[in-house]
Write a structure and sequence with these properties.
mainly alpha, elongated
Length: 92
């Protein structure tokens, strides 16, 4: 099939569809938990109202199931990428 010089398909006149982003999610879960923990420590030092400390604790604790979910998601992501991208290696 002929290809247009600007990357367009000669038949349909469209560009090839890019692959969707599939970043590792574990850093996002750890970052969220870290943000709540840091905010809690800062509020504790600043002698903030107790309700704000409870919010930080709840945010951190809700991050635990998120962390476990993202661990599983990233393991499945590595398997998917190993199947679809032969040069991608999985190191256990």
């Amino acid at each position: 099939m002929a290809e247009h010089p600007h990357g367009l398909d000669a038949v349909t006149g469209t560009r090839p569809r890019p692959e969707p982003l599939d970043p590792p999610m574990l850093p996002f879960a750890i970052g969220g938990m870290g943000a709540f923990a840091l905010a809690g420590v800062i509020l504790l030092i600043a002698d903030a109202p107790d309700r704000w400390l409870w919010v930080c604790l709840a945010g951190f604790l809700w991050g635990v199931p998120g962390l476990l979910t993202m661990l599983r998601y990233d393991a499945n992501r590595r398997r998917r990428r190993a199947l679809s991208h032969p040069r991608f290696e999985v190191h256990s």
